[in-house]
């Protein structure tokens, strides 16, 4: 993306767009198939002005696209773009973490299934090139080519401790 970034940290930039509960609930509803303003409103409990703001932000960020369906004047639906659909690993990880860490085994709120087979999704885990699950201790952060000098110094300092 050619957009000017506030920070050279992918987590911080993600939070600049998705860092509030309302935005994530709009994304949740989009993955569930919600497309209409009124349905987002009803399914999330968001105030109209906040929902309008979040939908506009997600359209501006190319996560959703606004489609004029022309019913009774100007009406819109909101559909996930390719960029929005690329959030599926994030959505699955949040759902699985919430089920495991908030609700607990046997009390999960929403299970996710493969549409084609009907089988429950396996737990999403980072894996090495051989397919072995990695833990937090197995993962090393290194500055990328877009990192600022300050980010490079900070990450390198942490890695050498």
Could you explain how this protein is built, in words?
This protein is mainly α and 161 residues long. The protein has two domains: 7-84, Winged helix-like DNA-binding domain superfamily/Winged helix DNA-binding domain (Arc Repressor Mutant, subunit A); 87-127, no CATH class. Helices cover 45% and strands 6% of the residues. The chain has helices at residues 10-18, 21-32, 37-44, 48-60, 82-85, 88-103, 149-159, and strands spanning 64-68, 76-80. A two-stranded antiparallel ribbon has the order 1-2. Strand 1 and strand 2 (76-80) form a beta hairpin. The chain starts with 9 loop residues before the first helix and ends with a helix. The mean pLDDT is 92.
> CATH superfamily of the largest domain, called what?
Winged helix-like DNA-binding domain superfamily/Winged helix DNA-binding domain
The SSE order reads HHHHEEHHH
Q: Which architecture of the largest domain does the CATH hierarchy give at level 2?
A: Orthogonal Bundle
Number of helices: 7
- SSE class: mainly alpha
- Which parts are unreliable, with pLDDT below 50 for 5 consecutive residues or more? none
* Overall morphology: globular
User: In CATH, what is the class of the largest domain?
Assistant: Mainly Alpha
Sheet-strand content, in percent, reads 5-15%
What name does CATH use for the topology of the largest domain?
A: Arc Repressor Mutant, subunit A
Number of strands: 2
Q: Any idea what the radius of gyration is?
A: 19 Å
Q: What number of domains?
A: 2
Distance, first to last CA: 33 Å
> How helical, in percent, are the residues?
40-55%
| Sheet of most strands | 2 strands, antiparallel
- How do the strands of the widest beta sheet line up side by side? 1-2
In round numbers, the mean pLDDT is 92
């Amino acid at each position: 993306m050619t957009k000017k970034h506030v920070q050279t940290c992918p987590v911080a930039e993600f939070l600049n767009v998705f860092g509030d509960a309302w935005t994530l609930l709009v994304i949740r509803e989009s993955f569930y198939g919600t497309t209409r303003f009124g349905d987002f409103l009803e399914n999330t409990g968001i105030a109209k002005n906040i929902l309008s703001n979040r939908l506009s932000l997600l359209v501006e960020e190319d996560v959703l696209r606004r489609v004029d369906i022309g019913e009774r004047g100007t009406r819109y639906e909101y559909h996930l773009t390719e960029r929005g659909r690329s959030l599926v690993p994030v959505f699955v990880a949040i759902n699985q973490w919430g089920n495991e860490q908030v609700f607990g085994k046997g009390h999960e709120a929403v299970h996710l299934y493969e549409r084609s087979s009907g089988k429950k999704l396996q737990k999403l885990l980072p894996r090495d090139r051989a397919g072995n699950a990695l833990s937090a201790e197995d993962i090393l952060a290194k500055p990328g080519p877009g990192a600022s000098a300050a980010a490079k110094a900070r990450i390198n300092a942490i890695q050498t401790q």
